Amino acid sequence: MTKQRAAVLGTGQTHHTTKRTDVSMPGLLREAVDRAMRDARVEWSDIDAVVLGKAPDLFEGVMMPELFLADALGANGKPLLRVHTAGSVGGSTALVAASLVQSGVHRRVLTVAYEKQSESNAMWALSIAPPFSMPVGAGAGGYFAPHVRSYIRRTDAPDHIGALVAVKDRRNGALNPYAHLRQEDITFDSVRASQMLWDPIRYDETCPSSDGACAMVLGDEAAGDAVDGGAAWVHGTAMRTEPTTFAGRDQVNPQAGKDAAAALWKAAGITDPLSEIDVAELYVPFSWFEPMWLENLGFTEEGSGWKLTESGATALDGTLPVNPSGGVLCTNPIGASGMLRCAEAAKQVMGRAGDYQVDGARKAVGHAYGGGSQYFAMWLVGADKPVG
Amino acid sequence: MITEETPLHAPLEIGFDYTRSLGPVLAHFMTQLANRRITGIRGSDGRVHVPPVEYDPHTAEALTEFVDVSDVGTVRTWSWVSHPVEGQPIQRPFAWALITLDGADTALLHAVDVDSTEQIHTGMRVRVRWADEPVGHITDIAYFVPADAGEERGDAPTPPRPPATERAEDGTVRTVITPIQLDYTHSVSPEESRYLRALAEGRMLGQRCPECEKVYIPPRGACPTDGVPTTTEVELPDTGIVTTFCIVNVPFLGQRIQPPYVTAYILLDGADIPFLHLVLGCEADEVRMGMRVRAAWKPREEWETSLQNVSHFEPTGEPDAPYDSYAHHL
After folding, report:
1. Structural domain tally of chain A?
2. Which region ranges are annotated with the description Disordered (chain B) (predicted)?
3. Structure confidence at residue A355 (pLDDT)
4. How many domains does chain B contain in total?
């Protein structure tokens, strides 16, 4: 049996912020789920299975949260899967949900990913030093900053590129009513003046810590055909993994990311991503990762990512708008961040992105990475059905 | 194998006072607990759930109809705990029981304080022993006692109460704190144990892969690239270079070093993979990629089986390594 067509029928997300103390964990998920189901015009009886994703359990201190969330997700009597691939989990969760439709197992699948960072402290959770080790870990920023420095050295990028990305994404986020940080007044100078946290990464070049959730309803071809105004059709998906460390590992431009992108372009019949892709929602938790991922995904050759950023090509009105929603730099409920990339890509090709809609968006990429740049998950969605 | 020595192990204790934001249903439940009242919620099938559930198990719709229930109920089934562990509600032998409170249709799991298995049975009537000072936390229900219990058994020893949260202005409990403590025994591999024992003697011990000939420190026991066992030990000098680094200026919870400090990937001479350590002995802004460094060891009497025997790395003053010599280690 060949792969069945799958489509995004609708998406939903929470209003993201530092502390959503007004809702419980189930309530947070339902805010996103209810919006996605309304957007998709489905009822609980239409849902065949539920796929849940979130990052490490230590972030909220709840082991196997999928068990206590079953009621809130309408999953009683249905298959419920939980996915975990660190920060990329929102992306891999969407891909697992898509595969359940593509395989012909289910007609409609609800997928949701979340993080309620305010219940704990992710920086603490990511800095646990086991016995015998040297306690130098300093959260995700401390982990990635040396690799950003390597990128700058390797490509001779001017040191202001990170600030350009921060200004662009934060201003984009101001157009997104759900974004955590909405900073329409941010300037290049204010970013450059913000505190250096993990040199070479400044405060304004880092993602916030957010409570939030994102949900999507995926369906088969008949369900996709019935979407008013058109569904977002899945043209390709790809996931790749590599060890966190090994001798000779390229920490700046990881092989697993290159391989995943190559597989994605092949699956979707893309030969020139830069000209064929209309929008990219890339997982950019620190501003410098925009040029890094532009190279890793093959939008441009190695060493040229920063030139693409500097040229303005990735701005909302550029040739390849990157993160028109504001991206992870504006909103980072870790487990949900990857699914937000996938959902925002879908919104663009469905023409449902509101004030940050990219005119004429027909093909969009959603991308996520996680761990020490060791997990990659991405999908390509289009306004038209995939050929073949 | 090279070693028959027992691999090293040590306790790893991690704990955090997690916050739970309750949402409308559990906020009402917790607020009522502070008044020594127990509240359930009516589901779509008419059943009363205690503790209340936020969403209906059958329809997944949000539930809103609160129902007060009794603090007296009936044991549905039970099991005996002869050796309570830290954190359990009663710190002497007790029974776990599923208890249906009068007015409820679901059972809740809680502890019953009785002398022995002779004193508890299915169908037995029990009542809540409230905490002396209810604050709006699930631990306000300290435990259960037989409904006809007198004072003769005395109060059961209970674990420390979690910190209380500040209530909203109208008195509603919106968040609770649930401390969680995980106590592990962290064991390291035989190969890493030999590396750590060498560190205790002031030596840097790695392993070479027989296939790719890359030298790993710490040793892995298997090559992550070739998947073969690594058995050849290689003693490395305590000198090397900084490949890349960052300056940590941000303070954070659980931090053990005062910022600002430089965390750097140190590639020892002869090694093929860098590890993270500190660079001191110069200003943070003088640290460079390619800088030559040497380990600064702590005084010998402080040495243990840890990389912390090296206090930090410091510049040797030699010329920097050319970029091309370490570009493939980034």
Report:
1. 1
2. 150-170, 308-330
3. 98
4. 3
Place of tokens 């025994």: B185
With a pLDDT cut of 70, the percent of chain A lying above it is: 99
Per residue in B95-144, pLDDT (tens digit) is 999 999 999 999 999 999 999 999 999 999 999 999 999 999 999 999 99
Chain A residues near residue B174 by CB distance under 8 angstroms: 21-22
B330 falls within a domain: yes
Q: Are A356 and A344 in contact (CB under 8 A)?
A: no
Domain with B161, as residue range(s), is: 19-180
Q: What is the pLDDT of residue A122?
A: 84
> Maximum distance among all alpha carbons in chain B?
84
| Residue A302 domain flag | no
Pull the structure tokens for residue B322. Answer: 């050319």
Is B249's CB within 8 Å of A197's CB? yes
CATH number at residue A42: 3.40.47.10
Q: Which of B214, B248, B286, B308 to mutate to test the interface with A (most CBs of A within 10 A)?
A: B248
- 0.90 surpassed by pTM: yes
Residue B325 in contact with partner chain A when CB distance is under 8 A: no
ipTM > 0.95 (yes/no): no
Same domain (yes/no): B169, B245: no
Q: Which class for B172: exposed (0-12), middle (13-18), buried (19 or more C-beta within 10 A)?
A: middle
Q: Identify the sign of the CA torsion B160, B161, B162, B163.
A: negative
A positions 112-131 inside 8 Å of B (CB): 116, 118-121, 123-125, 127-131
Mark yes or no for CB contact B54/A27 under 8 Å.
yes
Residue B261 has pLDDT above 60, yes or no: yes
Residue B98 lies in a domain: yes
pLDDT of residue B224: 93
| Chain pair A-B, CB pairs under 8 angstroms | 186
B87 touches chain A (CB under 8 A): no
Shortest CA gap B290–chain A (Å): 11
Residue B10 lies in a domain: no
Q: Is residue A375 part of a domain?
A: no
Token pair 């299915």: residue? B122
Put simply, whether B280 touches A (Cβ < 8 Å) is: no
Cβ-nearest to A197 among B250, B257, B265: B250
Interface of A with B in 297-356 (CB under 8 A): none
Residue B81, pLDDT score: 98
Tell me whether residue A307 is in a domain: no
Task: Give the torsion through C-alpha atoms of A3, A4, A7, A13, to 10 deg.
Answer: -70
Q: Could you tell me which chain B residue has the CA closest to the CA of A252?
A: B330
Task: Indicate if B167 and B192 belong to the same structural domain.
Answer: no
Q: Is residue A327 in a domain?
A: no
Tokens standing for B73? 């109920």
The answer to whether residues B201 and B73 belong to one domain is no
Distance CA A373, CA A162 (A): 19
Residue B3 included in any domain: no
Q: Last residue of a domain, which of B158, B180, B202?
A: B180
Backbone angles phi, psi at B172, to 5 degrees: -70, 140
Chain B residues within an 8 Å CB radius of A247: 212, 214-216, 225, 272-273
Determine what percent of chain B is predicted with pLDDT higher than 70. 99
CA distance, residue A23 to nearest chain B CA (Å): 4
Phi, psi of A239 (to 5 degrees): -135, 135
Could you say which of B196, B252, B273 has the minimum Cβ distance to residue A138?
A: B252
Phi, psi (rounded to 5 degrees) for B99: -120, 125
Is residue A141 within 8 A of residue A281, CB to CB? The reply is no
What are the φ and ψ backbone dihedral angles of A326, each rounded to 5 degrees? 105, -25
